[in-house]
Amino acid sequence: MSETLELTLRNDLAEHARLAAALSDWAERQGIDPGLATTFELAFDEILANIVGYAYDDADEPGVEHAIEVACRWDGETLSAEVVDDGRPFDPLSAPEPDLEAGLDERQVGGLGLFLVRQLMDEVAYRRQDGKNRLSFAKKQEA
């Protein structure tokens, strides 16, 4: 039986704390390994930082809010998630991987968080549907 956690967040970095608490409580009730839950919390932190920081042209306008939908599913073996936002189209999987060999002063700004998400997860997929970005990712719990 699949168990689901669903949250709607505002485009505000402070919302990560609410997501982290909900994820932790939910994962504990599901019997999900704490290390796997922590991996997802880290992924969510990186993804939300990118959405809040870059997805919205009107982010600096007073009173303007956007909803970011988060859903996590647990099937007893694999934890999967989807993050949906109405920001400008952006496929994080098409972004070039950062040059990890370059010196700090030579590196391009950005890209490390999404690179980290791709490295942490077993599966990562993106699609643009109904005017929204949909990033899904999954990782199997180790035995």
- Estimate the strand proportion: 25-35%
Q: Into which percent range does the helicity of residues fall?
A: 25-40%
Radius of gyration, whole Å? 16 Å
Which class do the helix and strand fractions yield?
alpha+beta
The average pLDDT score comes to 89
Report low-confidence residues grouped into runs of 5 or more. none
Query: What is the count of β-strands?
Result: 5
CATH topology: Heat Shock Protein 90
Which CATH class applies here?
Answer: Alpha Beta
- First CA to last CA: what distance? 19 Å
Descriptors:
Heat Shock Protein 90, five-stranded antiparallel β-sheet, alpha+beta, 143 residues, 28% strand
Describe this entry's structure for a reader.
α1 packs antiparallel against α2. This protein has 143 residues and is of the alpha+beta class. The chain has three helices and five strands. It is globular. It has one domain (3-140): Histidine kinase-like ATPase, C-terminal domain (Heat Shock Protein 90), CATH 3.30.565. The longest helix has 21 residues, at 34-54. The mean pLDDT is 89. It has a five-stranded antiparallel β-sheet with strand order 1-2-3-5-4, covered by helices on one side.
